[in-house]
Amino acid sequence: MTIGGWVQIALFGVIVILVTRPLGGYMTRVFAGERTFLSPVLRPVERAVYWCCGVDEKEEQHWLTYAVALLFFSVAGFVTLYALQRLQWYLPFNPQGQTGVAPDLAFNTSVSFVTNTNWQAYSGETTMSYLTQMAGLTVHNFVSAGTGIALALALIRGFVRREAKTIGNFWVDLTRATLYILIPISVVGALVLVWQGVPQNLGAYIDATTLEGAKQTIAQGPTASQEIIKELGTNGGGFFNANSAHPYENPNALTNLIELLAIFAIGAALTNVLGRMVNDERQGWAIFAAMGLLFLVGVTIAYWSEAHGNPAMATFNVDSAPSVLQAGGNMEGKEVRFAPALSALWATVTTDTSCGAVNSMHDSYLPIGGAVPMVNMQLGEVIFGGVGSGLYGILAFAIVAMFVAGLMVGRTPEYLGKKLEAKEVKMTILALLSLPLSILGWTALAAVLPAGLAGIANGGPHGFSEILYAYTEGTGNNGSAFAGLSANTMFYNLTIAGAMLIGRFIFVIPLLAVAGSLAQKKLLAPSAGTFPTNRPLFVGLLMGVILIMGGLTYFPAVSLGPAVEQVAMNQGKLFPAP
Length: 578
Hints:
By secondary structure, this protein is mostly helical. The protein has two domains: 3-207 and 215-280, no CATH class; 287-570, no CATH class. Helix content is 63%, strand content 2%. The chain contains 19 helices and four strands. Helix 6 packs parallel to helix 18 (490-519) and helix 15 (422-448) packs antiparallel against helix 18.
């Protein structure tokens, strides 16, 4: 590890902290329907959207109606995206003549982008037309992210409202999230990326001749517009197969910083939205502190691991120490322009959230370094998390933490002025248990069936890690990969799609029920026996619950993968290919 690497990581952290409160304040005003500096331009557009869709912005919805609206919108998005992929051969903006996508892959991709996972079992530049990229994938980058934000707001309103039967209007929340937040930031961000060299065109691919005389095809396309929203909306689906390691998606250190900040920005700001809406910003900063400390632990471990060279290379007298001539450390699968520090930072950030974009290949990380992204997702991706999903995920853990605290002191648990009774705790536990059931269940199935084993590229524990990672990212709606797994098969396309559906809808529907139940309750005034949830003690309790639940659930599986591989690597043992 180097001073320069830590300075870059610290700079990123400081900027995230500085951005959180201003963006949180702006978002709070947007969702309260208050006037903002963009209102003169966007308010008429917002009204026009409601008129076209027949939406009354003043009419609010019961939690069940809110959930039905979410499901119907998702089904409509799935159907249109599936049709777009299957019919792209007959549609315009297809200069490379891409054929229709295979049925199982189109199904997997449609589920992926509807659930904000953006897992890609294909190479974007050789599979999707420009129209599919723009009207299909990029559009879903916006609306699936907006859906996540809407769901977070619904849960916050459950804590804020008193004896209410409604938790907001899904269509209004989705419209405002997309129109006032995602689109304006994306327009500015895309222009900055174009300035830095990211392509934005509709031209055909370019055939070039290299200095050696070989032929090379250089892909083109509307890249910048998809790149910024894939980060801002924590989507992660790359325009190119190499994702943000591709120089056309992420040319230099400045674009790398901008894209990293975009990944964390909204998730961090939503903690401030929570504090403002409950009239106590310290509540939001307590959640932010728990997220921030868990992030710091993860990036430290990942950077420490990748800053060390691979012990297997030491037998060949390879110099892996940092110097003025090289970054040092484990450079396999990494871009020289990013080196271990920025690679480890990106791997941690993208799996703390549900982004899944990569600027290095996680499959090439050393075992402990590769375990960090995996564990980040297994903890529920609540370390800032996806846009919206991170906040409603960590609020679920907060409910469990307060239930534990209530058991310890022998009184009814409360959080943010609401009593947490049997219904809320049961629904929260149901949501949280759906994640390990999906991750471990699908992994067990793939690890014993020939169709699952056929996809792994490595033997031993690393092959198991590839399978475990695939279902972890699918259930976590993340989309990154241990790319050694050949996942574009009927088996993996269908089972990972199942994991993505569980991770999105089976997780969130119970939490909407929690929001509806909480909204109907009275708001209790703090008393001498109230556990303070804006203090360091709560931060420690919340972190402890997250780590203990994650450890008890996933430790055996992680032990069979990265832990065993690390021990074997230290002993110089290699595992044969399967």
